[in-house]
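fold-stage: in
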Amino acid sequence: MGLRTSELHPGLAAEAAWMDLSAPMPDDAIAAISAALDQYPVLVFRNQRLTDMQLRDFAGRFGPLEIGRSALRPGRRRLAIPQIGDISNLDEDNRVRALDDRRRLDSLGNRLWHTDASYMPIPVVLGLLHAVTLPPPSPFGNGETEFADMRAAYDALPDVTKAALEDLVIEHDVFWSRAQIGFTEFPPGEREQFPPSPQRLVRRMPATGRKTLYLSAHASHVIGWPKADGRLLLWDLTAHATQQRFVYSHTWRVGDVVIWDNRCTLHRGRPHDEQQPRDLRRATTLDTASTLEQAA
């Protein structure tokens, strides 16, 4: 079977024809979604009502699921299933977190352009984000999520630049990304639990053979270069890759499920009214090998 789509941004984002993601799904439907993601690495499904278990089970059809950094911390969680990431401004008792709450400040790193968990030795592939509760529009912004197409950004580079980038390896470090917004208050032992990881700067998408940049706020520096030179290169590349022509901005509605491919997109959250509840739930699939083991 095929999946009917309506393009939202050329070659980057599409809205899928209605499909009940909470229902048991045959293999050909999963294959159709995967094929659509090869064409549009940001795929929007509207009007979904998934429990956390249903979101976990649906996401698990695409590969093993990540248990994220927050879920690995000791203590009580708001959400019971560890494979479901809590992308909200709510505490364990469903109260809006204070503006100086440590976990809220850590989560503000999501407003930087990034790809999820690139600081892990084996990073992630798909992100699946489900909107449960949204704040009303406000002067602070509406909490959109922006996605940037790293394949198109790579294609737009001069050939001489592509050749110079081909073999570069980048160190990715979650503590570097959080330090950029002034957050350094990590729990004891977390720095040791999540050391930096090397990743290719240029990757090849396995299904299509198309090359893509692999950038992130976690990308600290070019291994083998002076740190200052590497960071300037990464900042320049990120500025190039996040030009408006490469970006789709998703305006959330309750019930949306957005699936994106972290291997060939950047994304960032936008501001919203932090005094009002905002509750999104995420599942993330794991890759099978380090980027260093994959052909560029």
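fold-stage: in (second)
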Amino acid sequence: MLPGNLEIKKNEDLDIKILASGNPPKTIDVFTKDLFQSEFTSQNVILDSNNTYQLRLRNIKNSFSYFAGNDRVKTDTYQINVTSPPQISGLTIEIIPPNYSRLPKVIQNDNGNLNVLKGTKINFDLTSSKLLSKATIITSDSTNKEFEVTKNSAKGSLLIKKN
């Protein structure tokens, strides 16, 4: 039974595969139970031409246990642990226009939409919902800029070179 025990990110899809041998039944049930359910629920899966039962679970939100079986056979029970990626919980952007523009510095809070001139310097200060090991901004021209990370915050600057 694949994938066995696994850790996945929230909202990902998961394929469960059971390879059959001998004289397998045409169908088998896959039983799942998440943290909020008191009992397992089942989905019937049909044997394919490769002697495999396959089930795709979409947009998984919560960790769950699962196994497969019928009245004659039962697999081990496995655990899928769902993790949530960090979310930006606070964002301050300081926009420093180029000298030639004579525009004033602007501070934006919790708004990441930018429309700036070539030569603008942008300072980012963000807070995350989780501790960070690293933070990178990736621009549309594939420029990667690492931020300085302290626990659940990150700071960094970016100079706009194109319009």
